[in-house]
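Hi support team,

I submitted a single chain yesterday and got back a structure, but I'm not sure I'm reading the token output correctly. Could someone confirm the output below corresponds to the sequence I sent? I've pasted both exactly as they appear in my results page.

Thanks,
R.
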Amino acid sequence: MKTAISIPDNVYNTAEMVAKKLNISRSELYTKAINDYLNQHQKSHITEALNKVYSEEKSTLEPAIIQMQSSSIEDESW
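Hi R., thanks for writing in. Yes, this is the structure output for that exact sequence:
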């Protein structure tokens, strides 16, 4: 798909240099950059959702589980 966007000259010039250095097309560079940004954005939504869940729900362990965890590492040296 083709699209037209406006970006500052300094961003364009830097992108051109990076694309040449990586030996890829400008389109490929922009596609990779947008994909990276979108992946990061999706991850932040996951973190936000988990933070919301754990802010509203009890997240402590049952005493029996804590005891089992403690006893499972007694022989470990840190």
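A quick pointer for reading it: Residues 39 and 62 are 35 Å apart (CA to CA). Let us know if anything else looks off.

Best,
Support desk
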